[in-house]
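Appendix B. Chain record.
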Amino acid sequence: MILTDPFVYFQKDFWTDTENAIRNAYRSTDAVILQQSLKLGKGGSTAVTGILIDGQKLVVANVGDSRAVMSKNGVAHQLSVDHEPSKEKKEIEKRGGFVSNIPGDVPRVDGQLAVARAFGDKSLKIHLSSEPDITHQAIDDHTEFILFASDGIWKVLSNQEAVDAIKSIKDPHAAAKHLIEEAISKKSKDDISCIVVKLH
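Structure tokens predicted for this chain:
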């Protein structure tokens, strides 16, 4: 999972056409990962990114089930979209793939991948998308922090539970560490990555 900007391939039109620049950066990142699949392996990655502009506007983009959550007055607000195969079944089928729904398991693309969008995953790429969803959020005096985390957090904690677990911890590094430890204590079996950005 990529938690911070994949924008080593930043587009020069970032300030004039932010959304298009982000989409191009995601496409470029996916292309580089695919080109290096022999070295990196056949797997893939989800991603969530956040760009704060002038301290007032937050632009969040993501592919897959890595998630951004904002705490405002102690209330959790999800800023990203979880790309679940069941929600994008028609698009996957248009690309020639299928979504399995075996009892006791989560829906999977071609019976394998539990997300509909990702970087990499070369063997499934023809049926997957790396196109990000992008949202814009106003940052004001009531915004306390932004939490970026992989699904290892979200499989065992709700958005509000995650916010409640760290809202009294002032140091963002300590807050992220505490949230990771909380997920481990709840027996999370997925990848766990987390960044906390404190505001004001």
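Further analysis of this model is presented in Appendix C.
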